[in-house]
Amino acid sequence: MKGAIVVAATAAMVGSANAVNHGHAHQVFAHKRNTDLCSTWVTTIWEETVMTLTPTQAPEPSTTPAVVSSNSPVTTSSAAPVSPTSTVKLPVPTPEPITYATPGTYTVPATTVTVSETTTVCGASSTHVVPGTHTVGGVTTVVETATTITCPVATATTNNGVVTSIITSTEYVCPSAGTYTVAPITTTVTEECDIHFPIPTSYAPGTYTIPQQVVTVTETDYVYYCPYTSSGLPTSSVIPVTLSPTKPIEALKPTTTAPASQSEAPKSEASKSSDSPKPTTSSTPNTSKPPSGGFNGSFGGKGNHYGITYTPYYGESGDCKDATQVKKDLQEIKNDGFNVIRVYGTDCNALETVGPACEELGIRVILGVFVKGASCSYESKEIKDQVDAIANWKHLGLVDLMVIGNEVLMQGLCQPGDLASLITTAKSKWSGYSGPFTIAETLNIWERSDVTSALCDVVDYTGANIHPYFNSQVTPATAGKFVSGQLDILDSVCSGKKAINLECGWPAEGSCNGSACPGKTEQLTALKSIRESCGDRTVFFSFENDMWKQPGSCGCEQSWGCKEFFKGLL
C-alpha cells in the first residue's frame, strides 16, 4: 500500500471506501482501515457506487431525459493533475494535497477551521490507474421507479493549466427503475499515473482540526493528504450528498435494445453539465470457457447464508488457535447453518487445523493464496511456500473454490497479466484439485478492460468483495439491495460466468459513513437485509471480532464479527 498514490479525501475522513486490503492474518481488513487518519502509508480509496447497475431496458431513443444545470460560485481552484500552481483556501475542512519533491522529514502545521452552517463544496479525490480509459466521480443514486432527481455535482474546467472546480445543481430525469451515475468524468491516460477529480462534499457545522504532524517521506514526488478531525459534531462529520426526488414521472415505454458487440462506460465531461448523464455500463463481457471441476456453482446454504470467513486467530490477541479450538469454532459454524468457510491462506497452520475438522464436520472450503509482497510470481518464496503446501494437502477434496490473491490488483501488488500467470501456474501445480478458480477484487477493478481481457479466461467465477458500509448512501436496511445490484453487474463481466460475493458484512462499532452507520442493531439489520437478498451467494465477514487490530480511522476495524447474528436462526 506504500507508494506515491493518495486519495483526498473527505471520503477518507470517515473511511468511505471499498475495501482495499481485507486480507487474512494480521492484515485482514488492513485498509479498512488499519491506519491513523494522518499516516505516511498511502491508500487508494474507491466508492463502490461508481460502478452501477444499468436498467435492463432502455427508454425510447426519441425520448431524451432533460437536464437543467445552474452553476454556483467557484469553490475550489487548483492546478492541473500533477502539481498545483494555485489554491484558494476555503473556510471548510477540505483536505489539501501537499507534494514533497524529495525524501526527508517534514512538519505539517496545525490548522483549525470552523464551519458555521452546512456547506457543500467541491472536494477532491484521486486514484491510481493503468493506461486506458477510466470513468470516475459523479453522484450515484438508486431509484425504484421513474422519477426526477436534483443533486449537486462537481465539475471542472482547465484554463492555462489551472483546473477550476465548481458545484453545479443538476436536475436529471430517471426514465425507469435502476441505478444511475450523474455526471461521471471520463478520462484517458497513456501511462500509469494518478488521476485527480472533484467530488461534491458537504460539511456540518462544527470545528475541524488538523493537529501538527511530522511526515517522513522516503520517495520523490510524494503526495500527502491529512484529513481534518471534528469536534462537537455527530458521529458522522461528513454529510452525504442528498439526492432529492422532485417529482415522479410516467415511466417511458421501453424498447428492446440488441446488445452491442462491444460496450464501454459512457463518456461525459464534467465541464459539460448540459450533457445528459447515463446509467453506468459494465466493460465488454468476455466470451470465455465455462467452469470446470467438481463445483457446479450452485451456491447456497441453510437459511440463505452460504459461507463465512474464518481465520484461525484468537480474536483478543491474534495468536494462532490450536486444533481443538479450531474444531470448536467450526462446529459452531456448522451448527449455525453454514456449508462453507473461506480461509485466506495457509499461515497459522490453517491447513493442518482446518482440514481435519472440516473433513469430520462436513464443511466445504474456499481456500486462498495470500499475496502481500511486491511480486505475485510463483518464484516469490511466500507464494511458492503456499502453493506447494496446498499441492501436498490431503484435503483438497474439500475445496469448492480457489481464490488467488485478495484485492491485489486494487493494491497495485500485481498486474492483471501477472495474476493470470499465477493462476495458471497454480493450476499446473495442483494436480489433486480439479475445481474452479477465481480472484477477490472489487467491482470497479473487475470492470477494467485490462482485467477482463487478462482474467476472464482463467477464472471460473467473478469473485468480489462487496462491503455496503463503505458506500456512504447505503443504510443498513438497504444493504442487501445494494449488494444484489453489485452482483447483478458482476454476473455480466465475464460472459457465462456467475459472480460470488466473497466478503461482506457490517461493523457493530465505529463512526457513521454518511448514511451507513455502524452499531449492534444496525449490524443485525444489515446482515438480515443481505441474507434475505443474496445470502445464498455471499460469504459473510467475519466469524468473530478482531480486537488485536487497530480501530482505524473509522473506529470499525475490530467489530465485524457476526457469529451472534446467525445463532438460533435455524
UniProtKB/TrEMBL annotation:
Q: What does this protein do?
A: Beta-glucosidases are one of a number of cellulolytic enzymes involved in the degradation of cellulosic biomass. Catalyzes the last step releasing glucose from the inhibitory cellobiose.
The record's listing under InterPro entries reads: Beta-glucan_modifiers, GH
Where can this protein be found? Secreted, Cell wall
Sequence segments annotated as region (Disordered): 55-90, 250-300
Keyword Manganese included in the entry's annotation = no
SUPFAM superfamilies reported in the protein's UniProt record: (Trans)glycosidases (SSF51445)
One GO term describing the cellular component: cell surface
Q: Which UniProt keywords apply?
A: Cell wall, Glycosidase, Hydrolase, Secreted, Signal
Q: Which family does it belong to?
A: Belongs to the glycosyl hydrolase 17 family.
GO MF term list: glucan endo-1,3-beta-D-glucosidase activity
Give the organism the record lists. Answer: Bionectria ochroleuca
Main subcellular localisation: secreted
Low complexity composition bias: which ranges?
Answer: 61-88, 273-293
GO terms classed as biological process = cell wall organization
The organism's place on the tree of life at top rank: Eukaryota
Tell me what this protein is called. Probable beta-glucosidase btgE
